[in-house]
Amino acid sequence: MSGASARKRILKTSVAAAAAGAVLFAPLTPLAQEVGAPLDPVSIRIGSNTEFTRIEFAGVIGARSQVRREGRDVVVRIGSTAAPDVSRLKVNPPRGVDKVETRAVRGATELVLTLAEGADARTGSADGAVWLNLYATPPAAAPVETPAAAVQAVPVTAVATPAKVSLSFAWATPVGAAVFRRGEAVWVVFDTPARLEMPGTGQLGPVSDARWTAGPDHVAIRIAAPEGLAVSAAAQGSTWTVTIGGQPIAVEGVAIDRQDDGEPALVARMAGATRAVWLTDPLAGDRFAAVTALAPGKGFADRRRTVDLALLPTAHGLAVETQASDLAIQADGDLVTLSRPGGLTLSPPSAALEAASAEDGAPRRAKHPGLILAEWGEPGDDGFSARYRALQDAAARESMAAGDDPRAPAEARFALARFLVGSSLGYEAVGVLNSIVVQSPNMAGEPELRGLRGAARASIGRMEEAQGDFASAAVASDPASAVWRGYIASTQGDWESARQAFAAGASAVDEFPAPWRARFGAAHAMAALETGDLEAARALLAYSFSQNAPAADQLTARLVQARLFELDGQSDRALAVYTAIGRAPLDAVSVPAKLGVVRLSLAKGTMKADAAANELEGLRWRWRGDATELAVIRQLGQLYLSQGLYREALTALKGAGPNMHRLEGAAEIQADLGAAFRMLFLEGGADGLQPVQALGLFYDFRELTPIGADGDEMVRRLSRRLVDVDLLDQAAELLKYQVENRLEGVAKAQVATDLAAVYLMDRQPEPALQAIWNSRTTILPMALNTERRALEARALMDLGRFDHALEVLGADSTPEAREVRAEVFWKQSNWAPAAVLYEGLLGDRFRNPAALTAIEEARLIRAGVGYSLGNDTAALSRLSRNYRPFVAGARAKTALSIALDDGAGGGASPGDFAALAASADTFAGWVAAMKADLRTKTGGNRPAAPAR
To answer: How high is the pLDDT of residue 380?
Structure first.
């Protein structure tokens, strides 16, 4: 047994033991195999942890061991007279065991373990093994559930004067608190449930009323107090004292700021924050939150309001009012984060920077964060280099002056980034913008930075990175950013999302430079085409052509026009445009154009499949990483499948790789892969391949095996083909993996039955028994039970355990059981009963004049020999009379003639019968019958699909 399978087995059996009420325990150390190989009749494995030692008895015989207790002795009866090797147990007895010895008894061996004083043992069976758990001390009883501890009572004392009152809450242990005023009420909130023993109303001084309520994780007190009274809180040990009235006390210790990464969220730095408690004001009916914190006292002295929330002044802790139902407050150590799924509505981070005037002539800020202005890229009177150098020098001076100051101005650096984006220098622009974030991390939430960096990344083809920028909440409502989202979705083949985004940004499209207007128009037109809106596509193409864009952008629009012709049924015009674009020296447009040429040429029959495959193979490597590559791969895979080149097809389709799973067409590629694999191994497509070729193909792409019944059926069909050509080891390996790793219940029993049959065909009875025994379950179909019973008996017969085999068969009178019973009688030299069974299996076969099959001849020979050796002359005469006419057409004429000789012709010699008994082997006939049965069960009796 391998280490991995040993660990798996002990995990399963440990769970079974715990379910039986044994004990909860730590994981065992890997089981050490005491003796033998995994298929030995008796296999003893030992493992231990801090709680107990486990001994497992496995194997064909070991799994049927019986355990009993005799005082301090635990006796394990093993059904074998050959004593197993227990030297390890004797030399190093487990904890809690005084001695170990073996003794021979009739037909078995007993292993006796004498327990130490106070030790205990428990036993059971699971996963084809009998287990014994040995405890040095009695195992702990299962924990008994007790009622939840009563909520603690907290005495509250009041010290009051007409002008103020101090309330002291005497907790048993330190707890977190929040104390704040809300209108004409003071709220005191603790992060632990309790029952407060409040003083009477007359003892509260200027306070008119105090009421408390408790939840599962808190207790809150609402104290009615006039607004003019000051509120303070202090802690001494575990006692909190809240004072209402008297002199105001300054508070500090809670600082609120934006989240460092620039995301639209607020972070409160408050030492010892413990919990956010949501409460409802019983008078106002609104919802608010209190964030508790441990002592010493710390509060928020300011009042701050944003669109989403309001932070109240507190004497201790934090208090938040909000109308938003999705506001999240997370207390984590010394930080409290306030956020919403779409981000809080906050002023941009640049608003906190120190004011700085822009350099004369520097590119100005656009009115939309994601907008590019045509003027940004203008070189000026002194030329591009001079303008670039001037902006770069200004940005460098600003960066050096800023140092580590996160509030230093960044206008010069933004001006440089705008110039670079406007000049189509995307890489350089990304570098400038990233340096701003490094120096001031909160600038990552600046809308213009997100818009500029997203535009720069999209312009250089980094679509996924650009998508991350435009997905930021900082630009969620920006129409220019919506245009970019539509452009990115179009390049990724997500046509529906592209159309929605372009529609959301329609108001900003005309403000972009002409080249970008042309690109956006072509991308929008393609999205309209793919969603079936041909009229919109025509209008958008006309818009794109009207922009007088550079040649490369015009070719992109022509590519979309060719696709429009194709969908419009004008294949000749489409082919002409594709061919012209395919000559362009730009792979971005020539590769999809050549793909269109291949697609249309194949449809017209003007290009052969092998030439198309060669062309597509070249295109695969010319353009990578977007929807065009996926289209090429899919076309190539379908082409190979149509030619019967299954390995090439699967290899091509698999070449899309995991890095492209986010693209829209990736799901179709995976669907093609799954469909191709199903066609090959479930629908008979691979039946035309040689079995070894089919096996190699399956192993190379086995990760495509679907989960569930279809995947299991694939494996069974492939294993049947391997059995047909006697590759029994490989077939057994496939089925064994299914049984041990993928199946449970009835399905596991069905496949395990096939596995046992394959093992028996390969003359391996012991693993066949293991397959049957390890897959036992309740309520199996009657036919399956009958088949399993016959296979188990045959395996026991092959091991020489004839009595046990007959015991398993019992009174079963099915043909399968009668055949195994006849085999057992034959091997026991119990001739007469064997002959009766063999003749019974032939039935009225003598009434059919057709030639006998090989298995029928073998049964007839055995019946005749059995009657002869059993001295049943009358039965032999009847058999000879019925079947003598079949001798002339028999395969083994001489053997059949001798077997049916009833003595009238002088009789056969004892040597003749000995030779017949050795030659009339029914095993080959049984193997042929099992192959035919397996072929029928897996659909292998249908015509095979031809290999192409």
So the answer is: 84
CA 169 – CA 220 distance, rounded (Å)? 12
Residue 138: predicted pLDDT: 67
Alpha carbons 695 and 909: distance in angstroms, whole number: 51
> pLDDT tens-digit profile of 559-572?
999 999 988 889 89
- Give the rounded percent of residues in the chain with a pLDDT score beyond 90: 29
Q: What percent of the residues of the chain are helix, what percent strand, and what percent coil, each to the nearest 5? A: 50, 15, 35
* Over residues 673-696, mean pLDDT: 76
Whole-number Å distance between alpha carbons of 397 and 393: 6
Whether residue 50 contacts residue 24, with contact meaning beta carbons closer than 8 Å, is answered with no
Residue-by-residue DSSP string for 476-493: TT-HHHHHHHHHHHHHTT
Residues with Cβ < 8 Å from 605, sequence gap 6 or more?
Answer: none
Contact predicate 715/694, CB 8 Å:
no
| Minimum mean pLDDT range among 166-180, 583-597, 680-694, 756-770 | 680-694
Burial classification of residue 321, based on how many CB atoms lie within 10 Å of its CB (0-12 exposed, 13-18 middle, 19 or more buried): middle
Hey, what amino acid is at 39? L
β-sheet with 43-48: strand ranges across = 32-33, 43-48, 53-58, 129-135, 120-126
At 688, the pLDDT band (50, 70, 90 cuts) reads confident
With 50 as the cut, is the pLDDT of residue 142 above it? no
Which among 194, 212, 213, 214 has a CA at the least distance from the CA of 150?
194
Three-state secondary-structure class, residue 626: coil
What Å distances lie between residue 710 and 291, 679, 694, CA to CA?
54, 11, 17
Distance of alpha carbon 716 from the chain centroid: 24
SS3 state at 352: helix
What is the pLDDT averaged over residues 380-394?
Answer: 90
What are the contacts of 280-285 at 24+ separation with CB within 8 A? Answer: 281/182, 281/185, 281/222, 282/222, 283/185, 284/183
805 exposure class (CB count in 10 Å sphere: 0-12, 13-18, 19+)? buried
Number of residues that make up the chain: 948
The amino acid occupying position 465 is E
